[in-house]
Amino acid sequence: MTPRDSLEKIIIVADHRAEASQHITSLLTSQGFSDVRKANSGEHIYELLRPLHDQPDKLGLIIINENLPQCRWLELCQNLAFGTDSTAVPCIVIGTPGTSSPQDMENALFCRLPDAFKPEELLLSVMFLLKLKHERFLRHKQEEQLINELAAKSIVDAKLKFLVAHDELTGLFNRSSFERQFRLVLNLSNKLQKTGALLFIDVDRFSLINELEGFEVGDRLLVELTLLIRKLAPPGSLFARIGADEFCLFLENKSQKQAIIFAESVKTTVENFRFFTGEVSYGATVSIGIAALDNAAPVQHPGEMILHARQACNFAKLGGRDKIRVYNSDDTAVRQRRNDIYWVPLIRKALRENDLLLMFQPVVQLTNGNISHYEVLLRMRGDNDQIIGPDKFIPAAERMGLIHAIDLWVVENAIEFLAALPSYMSYVSLAINLSGTAFQYPDLLQVIREKLELTWVDASRLTFEITETAAVDNFDLARSMISKIRSLGCKFALDDFGAGFCSFNYLKTFPVDYLKIDGQFIRNLVNDETDQILVKSMVDIAARLGKQTIAEFVETPGTALKLKEIGVNLGQGYAFGRPERNLLESQKIPLSILLNAPSDSHPDTVNSDSVKQYSKFQ
Ligand code: C2E
Ligand code: CA
Ligand code: CA
Question: What is the pTM of this model?
């Protein structure tokens, strides 16, 4: 760099005292510096910096008075003068000697001068820092050139370099190179007060596909998901695979709102994607956490922002997976915590004072319209006889460790309910929902066994509905508990089938009697051909495995007929009956007309009750 080059660099003099500012400016211009700009506050410095973000080499350095208004000079210098990249901007701080200095001076383009500095001191510091900056710039250029040359010289070398920086499977950046690149982006964004958001994307229940189908299939799923997401991302986005099934994607110049819209599109695209291996098809979902840049509280380290996005992602997983959550240091966590704390005493009181109640919804055989059994659905009695649905209090009970007490309450009360029915209703059987953690407590088996013995209720009158969560999170434990409860004579249904991971292979080894096809496939079944194909494949495979299928959310007669045509065994939904306090409400529905079949035209294969029999006892 020639002295002339130095003199053309922009120097920002940030001193609110007019006289001092003028003094420094005159010193510099008298030495030939041609572009000296004045700032009288911290904010003003950023205003001057902003238009220069594209041309960092035009900017020479900044001279700051320690007492400049609206300026945390230590932070400002840390942002600008630290770091080893070529975009660092030197800072000279003028103030009382001995006051604080940045901690880590190594590599910093930084120096301090006393209030009463000598003119030569200032000029020497300016020239020295400008030279240092220039040298750094040159070094960076040379490095770049070297890399290019190397790449050109030998493709093998280039490949090697690529492999060191990238994930071999997906070709994305790996964790360490992502952090390196991200540090640069963060530095610049902080300096220029840019917007941006980091997405942490985690494939839900990925380990399961690895276990069931092998690593090769798992790898293929990751590659396909990478391609899907890459297609949606703005070109040139920083995208990395930072863990087995974890991805980070930084969206530059995007606000939090825009990041959420983008995350929604990723979530929906993945939801709609189906992954085929042989005759088996999988659905995949992702949980996404978002951490947006906040200019009021800039993040200094890439690790910090990755952690925030990861925390938000964990929150999304806790919220039931297939969700998007935005990191907010207090907001969501506090709100959920407050909600949980609100419910805890109410749940305890309801358990103590029997303010919980059971409702019953019929499950109907589609061949003949007979009622097979009833699903037990829990409610809480609120103030003024208000009835509160389970979606309000069960999630809080799960998080606060009260769900097991609820599960036991429901099991005991459902069995007592059966025991209290008159003997002519001994054909009635019930399906009871168990929570995802039900199998973590060994006393469940004991409670069921003791209650059945005590009441003389036949175990075959009970079916337990579990979701994949219960099974997936602790496969072996769940399998052994289910086998023990089944050996008592009870049956099992896998609830919400298809909503989560939907693995047929996993089903093969799982000891359940019924598959309850999730309502999302049923609601629009009549008009949606894809749903019809999916339901058909679930039915085929269930039949091959010797299991019966139940469709939930059967809301119209048309849906019921379609399900019957596809070969689904049983149906449940508003078309047949809503959850009622009184079992016998349900028989008012003219099922035989609804299903276009006389109620006595088919043998009853699941249970012995029928609408006809049923109404006899009214
Ligand atoms: P789930 O087991 O999937 O229960 C089906 C839910 O769908 C019920 O809501 C039921 O009222 C509703 N439903 C039934 N037919 C239709 C229909 O045709 N259309 C529509 N839109 N909805 C229909 P509910 O009773 O609010 O229960 C919600 C969830 O709460 C249940 O989902 C289950 O996961 C949980 N739950 C309910 N009772 C218990 C319980 O005793 N113990 C535990 N651990 N969880 C329970
Ligand atoms: Ca259920
Ligand atoms: Ca369900």
Answer: 0.55
Two tokens, residue 352? 């103590």
Q: How confident is the model at residue 606, as a pLDDT?
A: 30
Helices 475-488 and 443-455: crossing angle in degrees, nearest 10, is 10
> What integer is the mean pLDDT of 15-43?
93
Question: Which ligand has an atom closest to residue 578 CA?
Answer: 1
Report yes or no on 347 lying in a domain: no
Tokens of 528: 């949606």
Provide the edge-to-edge strand list for the sheet that holds 286-292.
238-243, 246-252, 196-203, 286-292, 324-326
Domain with 235, as residue range(s), is 167-329
Q: Residue 473 has what pLDDT? A: 65
CA of 465 to the centre of ligand 2 (A): 6
Whether 498 lines ligand 1, by a CB cut-off of 6 Å, is no
| The ligand 1 atom nearest the CA atom of 389 | 26
Structure tokens at 511: 């000891």
Q: How far is CA 62 from CA 96, 344, 418, 467, 592, in A?
A: 18, 57, 82, 62, 86
In terms of Cα–Cα distance, which of 248, 241, 251, 233 is closest to 292?
251
Q: The tokens of 394 are what? A: 């069960």
Ligand 1 atom at minimal distance to the Cα of residue 575 = 18
Section 156-184 average pLDDT:
75
Give the pLDDT confidence score for residue 98 in this predicted structure: 63
| CB-based contact 92:129 (threshold 8 Å) | yes
Mean pLDDT rounded to a whole number for the chain: 84
Q: Which of 119, 150, 181 is the last residue of a domain?
A: 150
The reply to whether 126 and 171 lie within a common domain is no
Determine the distance separating the centroid of ligand 1 and the alpha carbon of 330, expressed in angstroms: 31
Q: What is the DSSP letter of 144?
A: H
Residue 435 in contact with ligand 1 by CB distance below 6 A:
yes
Q: Is residue 162 part of a domain?
A: no
Does residue 377's CB lie within 6 angstroms of at least one atom of ligand 1? yes
* Ligand (nearest to CA of 518): 3
Bridge partners (DSSP) listed for residue 166? 173
What does the pLDDT look like over 169-180, one tens digit per residue? 888 888 888 888
Total domains in the chain come to 3
Q: For residues 259 and 391, state if they share a domain.
A: no
What phi and psi values does residue 110 have, to the nearest 5 degrees?
Answer: -145, 140
